[in-house]
Specification:
The complex is a heterodimer of chains A (224) and B (151). Chain A is of the alpha/beta class and 224 residues long. In chain A, helix 4 packs across helix 6 and helix 5 packs across helix 6. The relative contact order of chain A is 0.12. With 151 residues, chain B is an alpha+beta fold. Chain B folds into 2 domains: 69 residues, no CATH class; 71 residues, no CATH class. In chain B, 33% of the residues lie in helices and 9% in strands. Chain B has a two-stranded antiparallel sheet. Classes of the chains: A alpha/beta (224), B alpha+beta (151). Chains A and B meet through helix 1, helix 2, helix 3, helix 4 and helix 6 of A and helix 2, helix 3, helix 4 and helix 5 of B.
Chain lengths: 224, 151
């Protein structure tokens, strides 16, 4: 638990570095040794790129996973989209012999291999399951009595078609964080309407996520 | 073709960058000339087509010149093209720009995250991976200009 590889993705370190800073500080406060994933690439982006070319998508994901495996620590993913992509790629590589064989050849050609020895966890999943609310509570320096509305983001809940996946398994765990936060509004699973979803409506898995941010904001405004 | 009095139209879709499909001459001999015409004028190869010699173009016509072929379009939908160009240039879905580096410095972080684009060796490995999947050809990516060959 004390040594984790942090997968930052592209958008967080390049557009919202404050999130990266916050995650690193949380790791430091919890005594987690953060292993840098040197040479990683885009996960790749799950909606636009993931649908555009599956073969490329799985191969790029597999390279990132092989880097994490080489680093010798489990992978903690900060971004919902990256989490979905990497978990799905890992599931496909475990269950689809044809894809695994093809990807293994491509990886071997660039001197890499992925054997599925690492666990992939979302940052909040890691906090909840590995760290635990008790330890987090002990680490708190300035308890804040703030009311929050929680938006999980839709990528966290998508399932890999035919492979189970189980992103939704975290719902109960996420809600148990209520021990640390006071939820003033009903948690929503509405998509934010951002990025790829509105662009690829015909291919979007979760049609609700295509309705845009307005609907999300209207839902968030529903008090408990 | 007509099957049992019903007019049947067969269609297939392939990426222009791939430009190859299978011939149906073995099941529909009349398709021979149509396939040959498409092959010579548009550059679509029909694997297994029996006729080698040119039908329309003169002998000695350059093999890479296809008179009716429009600029190549790959398998990348318009909305994904910028993201794809970013991916193949920086191994990231968004640009590693001066403003992003400045933003990171202000946050007290190294200018560049530990991504492939920060290390020549890793970037070469990433590009090698992309080429080995054949995506650059399917997408129609120009490595010299570092962008897709279409907008």
């Amino acid at each position: 638990m004390n040594r984790q590889t942090l997968f930052l993705g592209c958008v967080i370190p390049l557009r919202f570095p404050g999130i990266e800073v916050a995650a690193r500080r949380v790791f430091r406060e919890l005594g987690v040794d953060c292993v840098e994933l040197e040479g990683y690439s885009c996960c790749p982006e799950p909606v636009v790129l993931g649908l555009a070319d599956k073969e490329l998508g799985i191969a790029v994901s597999a390279r990132n996973l092989s880097l994490a495996e080489e680093a010798g620590a489990d992978l903690v993913v900060l971004c919902n989209g990256c989490f979905e992509t990497l978990v799905e790629a890992d599931a496909v590589l475990r269950h689809d012999e044809a894809v695994r064989s093809n990807v293994t050849q491509v990886l071997a050609a660039i001197g890499r291999r992925y054997e599925g020895k690492i666990k992939i966890k979302h940052f909040i999943e890691f906090l909840h399951e590995d760290v635990g609310t008790d330890r987090i509570r002990k680490t708190l320096k300035r308890p804040m009595d703030v009311a929050v509305a929680c938006h999980y983001g839709c990528h966290l809940f998508r399932e890999t078609a035919g492979l189970g996946g189980g992103f939704g398994r975290q719902v109960g765990g996420l809600r148990s964080r209520a021990a640390l936060l006071r939820f003033s509004h009903r948690p929503v699973r509405q998509g934010c309407g951002s990025q790829g979803a509105p662009l690829t409506q015909s291919q979007c898995i979760e049609q609700d996520s295509c309705r845009g941010g307005d609907l999300l904001l209207s839902r968030v405004s529903e008090p408990i | 073709m007509v099957v049992g009095g019903i007019l049947v139209t067969l269609r297939t879709a392939i990426a222009k960058e791939v430009s190859q499909t299978e011939t149906i001459v073995d099941v529909l001999p009349a398709a021979e000339l149509a396939e040959k015409e498409v092959s010579e004028l548009f550059g679509i190869e029909f694997a297994g087509h029996p006729r080698q010699a040119n039908l329309i173009l003169p002998d000695g016509w350059p093999a890479d010149k296809k008179p009716l072929r429009k600029p190549l379009m790959g398998n990348v939908i318009p909305q994904a093209r910028l993201t794809v160009e970013n991916l193949l240039r920086d191994a990231a879905s968004v640009r590693v720009s001066p403003s992003s580096m400045s933003r990171r410095e202000k946050a007290g972080l190294p200018k560049r995250p530990a991504m492939a684009s920060a290390k020549e060796e890793s970037m070469k490995e990433f590009i090698d991976l992309v080429i080995r999947t054949g995506f650059d050809k399917r997408a129609g990516y120009d490595w010299e200009k570092r962008k897709l060959r279409y907008k």
